[in-house]
Inverse folding.
């Protein structure tokens, strides 16, 4: 489904990703772990199409297409989704209106009829229960005044509404208490199917107790230095990242 | 290549859809301004002596005045002798049309193109329209139905002819002919406009609306609107404006006077979409307008709502004099300065009566090379016990070549006054746009969504029929403002 080959990218001449190779198939959950500054979030942003990153080498194939050739909104229409580490506040724009615009842009692309306000509300009520979100949030402006936990749950609500084929979750666990973490993980697991895939980016192993990955990759200084089964995450939790870095330089 | 030029044409049309010119026969005075021109205008309109005298007094006063230089706008000096002060559709010798059926079909077509059908059979639901083309009113709809309720809604010229006592009583009582450079010029040369009178206790059954259109080249438009709401009456009034695209600047110096007697309420909404000029600042309308209302009676209310998307330069401060006790003044404004547009706009709330209350919500949007200034005065007089004002002044910036400025003035002479001022400036951030993109929403749609969200408080004050229009207009005016 997603095939990253020798991906190199940076900002203002400073290399951040120094050759990433990663292959993800439908039905799989991959986790990327790594210390701060290793390039985890850059990878997420580059995959989502954020401007300002120079891609200096490598390729990303997504369902056979060149992902990097598509604009960010086109990627979404092809089933790509990024749950933001820091969801952005948009004052004055009603959350329901925003979500409906997003869903309808996707439906239009697929040649489906737009959802009316009533139809959309019905769909949203169904999804909102999954995330145990308060309905009053939907009347507020996008992410404005949301608590950290509400923002993260709202991201997964958006994921549920857009039903992506491939989702990247960028540190979705940061700032969540254990109860909120369970809710978010429950939501993500609920969306998991044999025909979609997820890439979970996290600093801590904690999230992976609830979203169990098939593969764990360790990102250090812009490269994947180690990959393994889910047990690798536990080992990282116990031993930290230093031993891998040492193993690398040895 | 024809396909390429088609694309370009489409693009230009998108930028300003109302820029066409109607080729009608006109009766236009040669450029220039002197007492003879004023006499000529007055004679053409068969005005009574007292009105001519008033015009001449204004003109003589105007000659002693200087153009204001304090607004935060820049433009080449205006050659007041290079402007024609009167232009009317229809040949010189022909009488003015008696009914809409006698109006030149080309004119009716013009208004159809603008989305303002004048024929009552195609009428806008529940809206009576007075259409002003260059210097004169070309037709007012629904007059009969309004007359049933005693409501007078007609062109200013007709009002002078048919209701001279009302004009004499109220003309210049809110904006005196000595008021300011542009208002004084208007008092001397005003050609037409609308007049509204709502009798005691009547709730006007229709939305009233005037549609202004500048068509002729090198003409100024100087219309004058007077609305009088008698005790306990209620009226909602909307004006819309467009003009053809021309390389030269055109002057629009209008005056609007509102009078609300005891317990009366006037709601005045403007959707101003004069041609803004191009992105290098060529052409466009100079919109130098004086709008003021007086809450004369106790418990009266005046509400100004304006959506200003057009004009090369906007200079206007719709104001309320709160004379009656417990009177209420409100000002809701959205001003967009895109391309090379400059806007210096705001309001004055003059609290004189006891327990008076005013609200100012101003939303300024700057894009392109636009410069947007909010200028507002809140004045509380000695005797205005327990006056309250709340001002909220928000600026939104799109891109990095535009500017937003705020000039609030507060003068309080009564210690019991409560005056609050809140101001914010924000920029549509790349991260907001990217967030929308990452949800599948295109950049232009994202900008429109954010801007409309920013303006929502003001749009919701517009009459329902026009709130959607305002939003659509904002979308069109913002096209190409990013990327």
């Amino acid at each position: 489904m997603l095939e990253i080959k020798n991906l190199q990218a940076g900002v203002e001449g400073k290399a951040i990703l120094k050759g990433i190779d990663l292959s993800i198939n439908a039905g799989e959950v991959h986790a990327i772990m790594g210390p701060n500054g290793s390039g985890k979030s850059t990878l997420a942003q580059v995959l989502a199409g954020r401007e300002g990153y120079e891609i200096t080498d490598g390729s990303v194939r997504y369902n056979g297409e060149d992902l990097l050739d598509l604009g960010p909104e086109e990627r979404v229409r092809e089933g790509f989704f990024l749950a933001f580490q820091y969801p952005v506040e948009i004052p004055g724009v009603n959350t329901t209106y925003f979500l409906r615009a997003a869903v309808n842009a996707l439906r239009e692309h697929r040649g489906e009829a737009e959802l009316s306000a009533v139809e959309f509300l019905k769909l949203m009520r169904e999804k909102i229960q999954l995330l145990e979100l308060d309905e009053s949030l939907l009347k507020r402006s996008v992410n404005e005044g949301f608590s950290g936990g509400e923002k993260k749950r709202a991201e997964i609500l958006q994921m549920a509404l857009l039903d992506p084929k491939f989702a990247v979750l960028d540190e979705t666990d940061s700032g969540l208490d254990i109860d909120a973490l369970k809710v978010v993980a429950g939501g993500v697991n609920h969306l998991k199917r044999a025909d979609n895939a997820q890439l979970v980016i996290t600093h801590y192993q904690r999230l992976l107790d609830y979203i169990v990955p098939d593969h764990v990759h360790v990102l250090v200084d812009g490269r994947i230095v180690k990959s393994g089964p889910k047990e690798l995450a536990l080992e990282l939790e116990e031993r930290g990242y230093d031993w891998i870095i040492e193993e690398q330089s040895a | 290549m024809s396909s390429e030029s088609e694309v370009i044409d489409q693009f230009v049309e998108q930028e300003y859809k109302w820029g066409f010119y109607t080729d009608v026969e006109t009766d236009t005075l040669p450029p220039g301004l002197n007492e003879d021109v004023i006499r000529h205008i007055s004679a053409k309109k068969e005005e009574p002596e007292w009105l001519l005298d008033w015009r001449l007094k204004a003109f003589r006063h105007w000659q002693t005045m200087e153009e204001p230089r304090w607004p935060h706008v820049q433009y080449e000096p205006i050659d007041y002798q290079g402007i024609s002060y009167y232009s009317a559709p229809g040949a010189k010798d022909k009488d003015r049309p008696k009914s809409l059926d006698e109006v030149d079909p080309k004119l009716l077509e013009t208004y159809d193109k603008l989305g303002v059908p004048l024929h009552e059979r195609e009428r806008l639901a529940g809206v009576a329209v007075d259409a002003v083309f260059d210097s004169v009113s070309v037709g007012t709809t629904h007059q009969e139905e309004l007359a049933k309720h005693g409501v007078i809604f007609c062109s200013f010229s007709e009002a002078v002819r048919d209701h001279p006592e009302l004009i004499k009583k109220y003309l210049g009582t809110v904006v005196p002919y000595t008021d300011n450079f542009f208002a004084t010029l208007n008092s001397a040369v005003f050609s037409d406009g609308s007049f509204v009178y709502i009798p005691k206790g009547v709730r006007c059954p229709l939305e009233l609306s005037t549609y202004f259109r500048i068509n002729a080249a090198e003409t100024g438009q100087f219309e004058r609107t007077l609305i009088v709401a008698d005790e306990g009456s209620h009226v909602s009034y909307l004006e819309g404006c467009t003009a053809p695209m021309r390389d030269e600047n055109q002057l629009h110096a209008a005056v609007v006077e509102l009078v609300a007697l005891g317990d009366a309420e006037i709601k005045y909404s403007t959707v101003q979409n004069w041609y803004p000029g191009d992105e290098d600042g060529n052409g466009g309308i100079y919109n130098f307008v004086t709008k003021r209302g007086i809450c004369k009676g106790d418990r009266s209310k005046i509400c100004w709502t304006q959506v200003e998307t057009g004009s090369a330069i906007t200079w206007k401060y719709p104001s309320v004099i709160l004379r009656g006790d417990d009177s209420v003044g409100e000002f809701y404004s959205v001003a967009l300065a895109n391309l090379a547009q400059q806007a210096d706009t705001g309001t004055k709330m003059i609290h004189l009566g006891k327990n008076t209350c005013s609200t100012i919500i101003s939303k300024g949007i700057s894009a392109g090379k636009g410069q947007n200034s909010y200028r507002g005065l809140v004045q509380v007089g000695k005797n205005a016990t327990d006056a309250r004002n709340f001002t909220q002044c928000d600026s939104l910036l799109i891109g990095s070549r535009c500017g937003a400025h705020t000039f609030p003035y507060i003068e309080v002479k009564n210690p019991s006054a409560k005056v609050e001022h809140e101001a914010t400036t924000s920029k549509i951030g790349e991260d907001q746009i990217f967030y929308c993109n990452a949800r599948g929403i295109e950049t232009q749609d994202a900008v429109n969504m954010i801007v409309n969200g920013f303006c929502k408080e003001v749009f919701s004050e517009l009459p329902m029929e026009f709130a959607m229009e305002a939003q659509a207009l904002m979308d069109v005016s913002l096209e190409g403002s990013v990327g």
Remarks:
- The interface with chain B takes residues 48-52, 71-73, 76-77, 81-82, 84, 87-88, 90-94, 97-98, 101-102, 105-106, 109, 141, 158, 162 of chain A (CB under 8 Å).
- The domain at 2-249 of chain A is CATH 3.40.50.300 (Rossmann fold).
- Residues 95-109 of chain A form the longest helix (15 residues).
- DSSP finds eight helices and twelve strands in chain A.
